[in-house]
Each structure stands twice: as structure tokens, then as C-alpha cells.
């Protein structure tokens, strides 16, 4: 789980750097703010879940992190498909979101299958 703490923080830092390089167009600024907000929330929600008082609270907070990851991926897809931004940096961010989404889904499923609250 400590690896996830580092990965979610790295994702936020990489998005911060990426957004700083977006064009200053209205689209770049608006979508940039959205992706920045959602990507930086992922790690915050993950950190909160680490101090949950129950498995149900843990799943709930992981679910919030998952929602923010899905939103981050959505904004990144819009940047790519609208051609506001492209390139290997964007692809790397999208791949990392995909990987983190798969990990969080597996974590949530595991806690559900454990049969505990």
C-alpha cells in the first residue's frame, strides 16, 4: 500500500508539471484546471483511506479516489481527442491512470470479498 501512496503522489506531481506546459488557450486553461483538481485529489483520498476506522469506510474512501482517477482520465482523454495536447507525456499520464484504476478496483473487490463490514 505504501507504493500506492507514492504512485498517487507522483501522478499529482506529474500532472502539475504537465498542466504547466499546456497552451494558454481558453480550452487549455479550463481543462487544465479540471485535470489538476481531480489528479491532486486522488492521493488525498488515498491517504484518508489509510486511516479508516472500518473496512466500509476504507472502501468508501478508496471509491472516492477511484472516482477522481476516472475523472482525471476523462480530462486527459479530452485533451488528447481535442488536440489541445498530445505526446508521450500525455500518454504516460493516461497509462498511469489506467493502471491505478485497475489497482484500486482490485483493492475494493478484495475488501468486499473478505466478508468484513
TrEMBL record:
Pfam families: 23S_rRNA_IVP (PF05635). Gene3D superfamilies: 23S rRNA-intervening sequence. This is Four helix bundle protein. It comes from Thioalkalivibrio sulfidiphilus (strain HL-EbGR7).
Amino acid at each position: 500500500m505504501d507504493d500506492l501512496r507514492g504512485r498517487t503522489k507522483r501522478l499529482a506531481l506529474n500532472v502539475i508539471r504537465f498542466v504547466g506546459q499546456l497552451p494558454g488557450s481558453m480550452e487549455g486553461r479550463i481543462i487544465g484546471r479540471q485535470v489538476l483538481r481531480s489528479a491532486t485529489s486522488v492521493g488525498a483520498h488515498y491517504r484518508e483511506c489509510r486511516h479508516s476506522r472500518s473496512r466500509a469506510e476504507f472502501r468508501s474512501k478508496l471509491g472516492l479516489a477511484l472516482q477522481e482517477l476516472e475523472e482525471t482520465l476523462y480530462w486527459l482523454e479530452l485533451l488528447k481527442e481535442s488536440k489541445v495536447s498530445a505526446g508521450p507525456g500525455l500518454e504516460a499520464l493516461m497509462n498511469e491512470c489506467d493502471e491505478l484504476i485497475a489497482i484500486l478496483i482490485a483493492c475494493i473487490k478484495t475488501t468486499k470479498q473478505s466478508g468484513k463490514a
